[in-house]
Structure formats: C-alpha cells, structure tokens
Design brief:
Helix content is 13%, strand content 53%. It is mainly β.
C-alpha cells in the first residue's frame, strides 16, 4: 500500500508536458497537459484550466457549461468559445 501511495504522489507531482502552438492569424496557444486536465494560455492574455471530458476522437477539455472547449486532435489543437473557433489551425511550434 505504501508503494502505491508513493507512486500516486509521484504521478501527481510530475512536471506537466508544456507545448506551444502557433495558430492562424499569428495567434499562439500554450498548453500544460496534466493527467486529467489542461491549463491553456492564449496569446491575448487569457488563461483557462479545463478538465478533460468525453470525446469520440482526440483529447477534449471543457468547462462545465462547455462554452469553452480546447481540442487536441492529431498534431494540432483548436480553441472554441461558444459556437466560434477563436484559435484555429494551431500546430506545435517548431514542427
């Protein structure tokens, strides 16, 4: 039981994966990926911490009302606010 607890604490304390994305219209998105959530920083200065939610494909993160959604599909991501995709064609910077 002690080994499990130590392993769990290690998993939760690991440094998250941090990825920078370059998007259309010279916008950027920074994402810190955790086990069950993502912290997103937009180039306009706004930040969101979003839990992972059900998705048919890719990884999808959204607030409770799903008015803010961050999608990670394949090599790219996009950010949706309401019905509008406000950050599109985002690919990992440097790739």
């Amino acid at each position: 039981a002690v080994g499990f607890y130590i392993g769990l604490r290690y998993e939760n304390s690991k440094i998250p994966d941090v990825v920078e994305y370059a998007c259309a219209d010279k916008k950027t998105v920074g994402a810190q990926y955790y086990k069950d959530k993502v912290h997103v920083g937009l180039s306009d200065g706004r930040e969101y911490s979003l839990p992972q939610v059900m998705s048919a494909s890719g990884a999808r993160y959204a607030n409770a009302s799903e008015s803010v959604v961050f999608w990670n599909k394949g090599d790219g991501v996009f950010f949706q606010e309401g019905a509008l995709i406000t950050y599109s064609n985002c690919l990992e910077a440097g790739k």
